[in-house]
Design a protein that fits this description.
By secondary structure, the chain is α/β, with parallel strands linked by helices. Helix content is 32%, strand content 25%. It has 17 helices and 24 strands.
């Protein structure tokens, strides 16, 4: 694309030595990926400064550089106020504003984003509406997986995905929106048909500092500049905390507080859910293989979106019967026991999934989990306290510890470990999983939490191969031999 066309509707402070006839072959934020005629964005990150890599970018073929100040180097330069914001808008223009031709549903919140996207996708599939999904589990169009990374990809990759999906005749895109993506302006320039706010509980305070900043970041997108419509959890106090200040049309979903879409007569066990939903006075019954009250909320939010999209009840009812989400409530049956793999990795996430197991139909609940390296001491204590108090037995292990030693986790948790006698600590996660499986007796449930369908374990800066489901399957084979 010619630089003149790319910059046509974009705002910048200054052009330095720029030839508007320059042809741009690619947009890059990594100097290593630059090639002939690339445009390179100097991102000032939290660890590295993009300006330090301009020389490398030029050596690799970059002909235009975007930065927040004029650089003392002989290259075409675009000086802007905010490189991240400009990159998002530039990526949209480079990929022919593909996002404007799609109905895009954004799912934000602390927990439930991935499951909610797949609930919506399952119904749209039944309605024969071609749907794309972007999120933690990657990018899917039907059964086709596209290359992507991060919960919300960086703008260049994100808009490239929109362009690919448009060419694949996708009509609706359902995507997860992380708090980091909002803060870093990754979704600037996208106008969402609907944004869902699933819930807001304590998470990422290492980055945001306090809950007020975290809540404000989530609410930034509940605004007419980002969306035409919002769907908000009426039973979440944090979700309602700023509802009087929003300027976009919205509806509420919930169980306890007055809502436009709500559930009654809820029955749940580890085999699934059954309840009656009332959505804008339209009443029908839902049966789903998903279990737990937290999934009632995920389903209610999805129904509110689907109603806004004018999807009929028959498709909703049919599409909700069997939801398959990798790493979310994946059940492996072993003799008369259930091993459930789930991504729950926050205090609230652990509380919700453990409480979802019907103790009247289960003997013991064994919970295995770890804490990520960037978590703080309070979050670690809360997670272990909740797990020990609500489970019959707990195995504490590693979950992407990175540079944090296991002994440091145990130091933070010493008070909780002294308080409870139903917990064992095992550093190696594979060994911990095998230990937990060996604890299973008749009619027990084992919850393996935190990893979901991740395929790596981050240890000392290295992503080492690790697949929780494969560890379970391989170990069960040895027990059957």
């Amino acid at each position: 694309m010619k630089l003149e066309r790319l910059l046509k509707n974009l705002k910048f402070k200054e052009l330095v030595n720029v030839n508007l006839n320059t042809n741009i072959s690619s947009l890059e934020l990594n100097s290593k990926n630059c090639k002939k005629n690339s445009l390179f964005f100097c991102i000032n990150g939290f660890v590295v400064n993009g300006e330090d890599y301009v020389v490398d970018a030029i050596k690799n073929g970059a002909v235009v550089v975007v930065s927040e100040k004029k650089l003392k180097i002989d290259v075409q330069q675009i000086v802007v106020k905010d490189v991240r914001k400009f990159m998002a808008e530039c990526a949209k223009a480079y990929y022919y504003n593909a996002c404007d031709k799609l109905k895009i549903i954004g799912i934000t919140g602390t927990n439930g984003k991935t499951t909610t996207t797949y609930v919506i996708k399952s119904v749209l599939d039944k309605a024969n509406i071609k749907c794309g999904v972007i999120g933690t589990n990657g990018t899917m169009v039907g059964d086709v997986k596209l290359n992507s990374n991060l919960t919300t990809p960086d703008p260049i990759e994100l808009h490239k995905l929109f362009y690919k999906m448009l060419k694949m005749k996708v009509k609706v895109v359902v995507m997860e929106i992380s708090a980091h993506a909002i803060y870093l302006n990754k979704i600037d320039g996208i106008k969402f048909n609907t944004i869902v706010l699933t819930n807001i509980t304590e998470e990422h305070l290492d980055f945001f500092g306090d809950m007020n900043n975290y809540i404000n970041t989530k609410f930034k997108v509940i605004d007419r500049s980002y969306c035409d419509y919002a769907v908000i959890n009426a039973d979440c106090e944090n979700c309602l905390s700023k509802i009087n200040k929003i300027n976009v049309k919205y509806s509420l979903f919930g169980i306890y507080n007055p809502s436009d879409t709500f559930a009654i007569n809820i029955y749940s066990n580890s085999n699934g859910l059954k309840f009656v939903v009332n959505s804008f006075d339209d009443i029908f019954e839902i049966n789903s293989n998903l279990f737990g009250k937290y999934n009632v909320y995920n389903i209610l939010s999805a129904i509110a979106v689907l109603k806004h999209l004018k999807i009929s009840n028959n498709y909703i009812i049919d599409g909700l019967k069997n939801i398959n989400v990798l790493g979310r409530q994946e059940v492996i049956n072993f003799k008369n026991n259930k091993i459930i793999i789930d991504y729950a990795h926050t205090p609230d996430g652990i509380k919700q999934i453990v409480s979802a197991i019907n103790k009247n139909q289960t003997n013991n609940v064994i919970t295995l989990f770890g804490c990520v390296g960037y978590s703080n001491a309070k979050k670690r204590k809360d997670m272990l306290e909740i797990a020990c108090a609500s489970s019959d037995y707990v195995v504490f292990t590693c979950d992407n510890p990175n540079f944090v030693k296991f002994s440091e986790f145990l130091t933070d948790l010493k008070d909780v470990l002294k308080k409870y006698n139903n917990v064992t600590t095992i550093e190696n996660r594979s060994d911990a999983v095998k230990f937990a499986i060996n604890l299973l007796k008749e009619n027990d449930v084992l919850l393996l939490l935190g990893k979901g369908n991740e395929t790596t374990q981050l240890i000392n800066g290295v992503y080492e191969p690790y697949n929780e489901k494969q560890v379970v399957v391989d170990f069960l084979k040895t027990k059957e031999e």
